[in-house]
Amino acid sequence: MKVGDTHFRSLWADPAKSRVHFIDQTRLPFAFETRSATRVEEVAEAIRVMRVRGAPLIGVAAAFGVALALEHDNSDAGLKRAVTTLKATRPTAVNLAWALDRVEAKLTGVLPHKRTELAWAEAQAIADEDVALNEAIGTHGVKLIEALYLRLKRPVNVLTHCNAGWIATVDWGTVTSPLYKAHEARIPVHVWVDETRPRNQGLLTAWELASHGVPHTLVTDNAGGHLMQRGQVDLVLVGADRVSRRGDVCNKIGTYLKALAAHANGVPFYACVPTPTIDWKVTDALAEIPIEERPADEVRIVRGLDLQGLPSQVAIASANTPVANPAFDVTPAELLTGLVTERGVFKANERDLLALWPKSQRDQAYLT
Amino acid sequence: MKVGDTHFRSLWADPAKSRVHFIDQTRLPFAFETRSATRVEEVAEAIRVMRVRGAPLIGVAAAFGVALALEHDNSDAGLKRAVTTLKATRPTAVNLAWALDRVEAKLTGVLPHKRTELAWAEAQAIADEDVALNEAIGTHGVKLIEALYLRLKRPVNVLTHCNAGWIATVDWGTVTSPLYKAHEARIPVHVWVDETRPRNQGLLTAWELASHGVPHTLVTDNAGGHLMQRGQVDLVLVGADRVSRRGDVCNKIGTYLKALAAHANGVPFYACVPTPTIDWKVTDALAEIPIEERPADEVRIVRGLDLQGLPSQVAIASANTPVANPAFDVTPAELLTGLVTERGVFKANERDLLALWPKSQRDQAYLT
Fold first, then answer.
1. Is there a catalytic annotation at residue A241?
2. Of B171, B194, B234, B241, which is the active-site residue?
């Protein structure tokens, strides 16, 4: 999407120069800076410290990471090492493993000297597919917003948690795609943006929406239940890092609390998910998906700008304050109104999902 | 309770010197500083900017504020002006209005020159009663923790939101009183402390608990649902700024989300409330209690310590990011397991509450 007057993707490759460029999201929303990587270790670092973040984007970044690795070592061992390094960066999102498995499968049985070019092409294909998937999610999701607008005849209030925006994907975003489509279609929409502690990804969402002129209001993570109770939320849209075959949604910590509030107050609650986010091997997300525990300092240290407008940080708790920092939670399928996918809007249950994705297609989705 | 080796109350008066001392809670947890006030305007400012905070404590502070005002102007007009000024500081907690009404009632029909001494005495009585009320809440509340310990035979995990600690009262605290009593009785207890954005009062709770050696872990407000889902919370204890006659609890924003999660996961959820927090005139809290909207900068600006350990702040969002900052929400009585009061533990419904507090006593509770 646009930053100023220029259209950007969140990540783009230059195979000719063996280089991958990306927006450094640890600098947002205060500074818009791009970086580049020429080695797989740099890509792994960028994923780990969340310079690139968002389930779809880290899958794409990892795929390009394999291509970079092969530039330096195209042996079987080199390929395996790259995949292992990249898989270890973040444990929760399925897209990472999915993208790596897909690239690895593509290269299996290919002679080493032919691998590199093929890896670049496959990573680029994953990136381009991601853009198409997200745009299609928008095409389906905007209908939900439009229907609410036709019924309510006033701006539609959408609440979202974390950043499932275009910078969490290659372009469009999952949650933001319907929002941008609505805005383009002149359907009035206002977005409640959850701050999303500890890393405050809501500020990225606010930055995105402000850049596009979509009306929005930042609120603390605590406020959403109150807003729903008071009828100030018409629709909740969240992203997902992994979805089970029965429709449980693993997403940023705090999503579950919003789902409970939406359910209690009759507010429709959808997860916007591209196909690769559905992990057909997982049935019960609560029991089966590992939840990443991230560093305590993410809670203790808050980054922002000082009074002079320079990047700064404060410690809100001392280093000896014990902290737990689980990064994701699971929203059981029963709390969802549905899933907005590139194929349309579906109910979140095993029967409906499996019926729409027959086994052959599920295998294809997981391993092209 | 103790700070270092010294026993403190959060606020104390020196009528001889026409002065009220208090802990400046805007400096906590980074610095322990006391302030004093000689004028009602200083007390009003301290309440408004939350140097003194917590429903019980602001009632006590306001009562002393009237005494200070009368030192300068003991006329009917002076009394009325003081009460009006103080009532306007914070709209949600009932204790503020309750304490002011009580002092005003005590002074009605009293000759101006006799008012000041009486006001000091009444404010002191309210303060001393608050200490006794909170200690009694602890005596009843600790039984809940003890029962869980006897059943679970491992440390009891209690989650709390905001700071309903001794510094939110004159001493003991509402939520912390059972925790301190448990700790004193060597019942092993571990406290999950919600950060409580935007003002991070959880850090005050963490500071209190650390000062007393009570095991605790700081978590973001987003984490509680996940912890309950995973069986890591045995009991939720929250405070209240106002409770309706049928047991709805108005408390710090975010409380409602934790109540929904507790209800969904079978975790007992209690509000710890002294009698003056029950507003017998309110039946439906959601419809009748005004919710304070606090300044946007509370969300935009985060205070803490810089890398040199000096008090500092960062802006996490720019001044033109639209922000909403509702400070409280309402948890419907149906989501509560019960209320822990100085009289014992009661179910949160109108019949049980009214039966236990017959009209004469309710009138007395509201207006001694």
1. yes
2. B241
**B207: closest CA of chain A, how far (Å):** 9
The answer, for B316 touching chain A at a CB cutoff of 8 Å, is yes
Determine whether A131 is exposed, middle or buried from the number of CB atoms within 10 Å of its CB (0-12, 13-18, 19+): middle
Q: Give residue A317's pLDDT band: very low, low, confident or very high (50, 70, 90).
A: very high
Q: Write out residues 40-69 of B within 8 Å (CB-CB) of A.
A: none
Amino acid letter for position A350: E
> B160 contacts in A (CB within 8 Å)?
none
Is residue A159 predicted with pLDDT exceeding 70?
yes
- Tell me, rounded to whole angstroms, the distance of Cα B198 from its chain centroid: 16
Is there a contact between A359 and A291 (Cβ–Cβ < 8 Å)?
no
Q: Which superfamily is assigned to B135-364 in CATH?
A: Translation initiation factor eif-2b; domain 2 (3.40.50.10470)
Question: B2-129 domain in CATH 1.20.120.420?
Answer: yes
Distance from C-alpha of B229 to C-alpha of A296, rounded to nearest angstrom = 21
Q: What are residue A147's phi and psi, to 5 degrees?
A: -60, -40
- Taking phi first (over 0 means left), then psi (-120 to 50 degrees means alpha), and beta for anything else, what does residue A259 get? alpha
Residue spans per domain, chain A: 2-129, 135-364
pLDDT at A70: 98
Cα distance between residue B265 and residue B261, in whole Å: 6
The CB density around residue A21, as the number of other CB atoms within 10 Å, is: 17
What's chain A's average pLDDT? 94
Cβ A314–B304 below 8 Å, yes or no? yes
Orientation of helix A112-152 relative to helix A94-107, angle to 10°: 140
**Which of A286, A304, A317 lies closest to B315 in CB terms?**
A304
Q: Which amino acid is at A342?
A: E
One-letter amino acid for residue A10 of the chain: S
Given CB atoms, is B261 within the 8 Å cutoff of chain A?
Answer: yes
- β-bridge pairing B216-219 and A344-346: unpaired
Q: Is A185 an 8 Å CB contact of chain B?
A: no
CA distances from B197 to A264, B91, B255, B303 (A): 23, 19, 12, 12
pLDDT at A305 over 50: yes
Instruction: Look up residue A366 and give its two tokens.
Output: 């997981």
The shortest C-alpha distance from B310 to chain A (Å) reads 9
Q: Are the folds of A2-129 and A135-364 the same? A: no
Over residues A4-29, the mean pLDDT reads 93
Contacts of A240 (CB under 8 A, 6+ apart): A55, A164, A174, A249, A250, A251, A271, A272, A273, A277
A175: left (phi over 0), alpha (psi -120 to 50) or beta: alpha
Q: How far apart are CA A222 and CA B328, in angstroms?
A: 9
Residue of A nearest to B213 (CA): A321
Task: Pick the closest to residue B235 from B302, B167, B151, B350 (CA basis).
Answer: B151
